[in-house]
Amino acid sequence: MSYGFGISGTGMIANFHAEAVQSMAGGKLAACYSRSEERAKNFAEKYSCRGYTDFRAFLDDTEVDIVTVCTPSGAHLDQALKIAEAGKHAVIEKPLEITLKRCCRIIEAFESNNLQLGGVFQSRFFDAARVLKSALEKEKFGRLILGDAYIKWFRSQKYYDEGGWKGTKALDGGGALMNQSIHAVDLLQWYMGAVDSVQAYKGILGHKRIEVEDTAVAAVLFKNGAMGVIEGSTAVYPGFLKRIEISGTEGSAVLEEDHFNTWSFKNQTKDDKRIITDFGMRSKTGGGASDPSAIDFAGHRRQFENFVKALNGEEKLLIDGKEAMKSVEIILAIYRSAEEGKPVRI
Q1: pTM of the shown model
Q2: Under 8 Å CB-to-CB from 288, ≥6 apart: which residues?
Q3: Structure confidence at residue 245 as a pLDDT band (50, 70, 90)
Q4: Residues 6+ apart with CB under 8 A from 131
Q5: The dihedral of CA 15, 19, 20, 25: what is its sign?
């Protein structure tokens, strides 16, 4: 069965949603919504869909089965509740929302209406990321010792000044961690398992006129006994690809965006040599390190295809609302630790 998609919000990330839907199997772009008549019209013309400035009319479109939410983070709850009430499924851009209470309200709304809810974490759908997950499931690393995430990105002062909502507590919910580093935080907990506690620092070191951090660091203790570090910043020039490092007693891997800098194990196999050949090349995109538009829509396309296949009963939904909330919980714990000056258990 094929499904009609509607996109709420017409900012930069909405373009990647539109391209992903237009290239995917099992879906078609039916409509878009924006509060701005000009933006709704231009987006609709660009992607050959219907444009709405009335959210209720948008939800009443009978060809819209699934809504992807691309509005500011702190505005997700209001729209999500209306989407669930209208009987539509939803895929919500990261973060799901900016507090755990608001995340839970979204999850409950979709569960009570027997609707499917997904949270966008497209990095999990890239081939190299899945190869690393598979190796971990096979316990190829031995006992896990360290799991680290490094997100040293750059955003200009202009980026925050022109964004309107970016860098605000009310709509961004946080800075370098909640907005940018959340993809790496999600990958890290997906690989390493649940986090037990964090000890953190955060600050505004490279920007002005923002209410949230542009730099944060945290020491992490995982429930399996492994340790790690999360570093996130939007103040580091010129900006570097996000990096995940997994180290164990039997081997280590360093994933830089969608390729491996390191893939080394005590018991190296033919498959390991193939992985080095296939995924040892440098990333073809900028990964959003210094330009938020320098990403690839392939991850979104694969996630939307998984969402549709789950609706059809062909696959398990890989990132539902509860899964999408895990990284928000970790980041909020980091914020609390930095503010209180002590470790925070999750």
Answers
A1: 0.95
A2: 153, 180, 294, 295
A3: very high
A4: 275, 279
A5: positive
